């Protein structure tokens, strides 16, 4: 099989989340990829993060007629059997961080991970997915005014501070999104014929 090559350095990130756009621009611009943004929406099928990202990227690239990335992410808490996981969005909108803290009130094992899967697709190719994970723990209260959603609850491994206490540049150095986007960028460049 011949190796697929790409000649574009501009890719469109399909998301309705402005925080994700700013984080992703900070990461990808440093890696030589220009990111545009479109809030198109795409069907979110039932399945794991990879399934959702693969399907969403294919759907959006065919519809837009351009190379795109989409992201599906979530918070996975070990003591809660990896809940909220793929339900992270729904849980954030319903019980929110306070609800998670309630569920964790008697729990001493605070281990959790954020996972991010980037799906990439062009109108003429099959989708590819890239997983990034960051390990950490759930705090006992919400703390910090930076970031979004679960950030004030999540303390990455080896740090006292929560993601909510970190400025974007710091979170971007080692977040789940950093890792998935970096994997994507390295793969993309190795397939880029410019
Ligand atoms: P999504 O479906 O990929 O948008 O993410 C699922 C849920 O996890 C949403 O409520 C997001 O706001 C939340 N989430 C995703 N990434 C992060 C992050 O980096 N920090 C905090 N919450 C996040």
Looking at this protein, list some descriptive labels.
Maf protein, binds inosinic acid, alpha/beta, 7 strands, globular, 194 residues, 7-stranded mixed beta sheet, 6 helices, 34% helix
Can you characterise this structure?
By secondary structure, the chain is α/β, with parallel strands linked by helices. The protein has one domain (10-190): Maf protein, CATH 3.90.950. Helices cover 34% and strands 24% of the residues. The chain is built from six helices and seven strands; from the N terminus they run βαβαββααβββαα. Strands 1, 2, 3, 4, 5, 6 and 7 form a seven-stranded mixed sheet that branches. The model has no long low-confidence stretch (mean pLDDT 94).
Per DSSP, the total helix count is: 6
User: What ions, cofactors and ligands are bound?
Assistant: inosinic acid
* Count of structural domains: 1
Q: Report mean pLDDT, rounded to a whole number.
A: 94
What overall geometry do the principal axes of the alpha carbons give?
globular
| End-to-end gap | 21 Å
- CATH fold title: Maf protein
- Report the order of strands and helices: EHEHEEHHEEEHH
The top level CATH class name = Alpha Beta
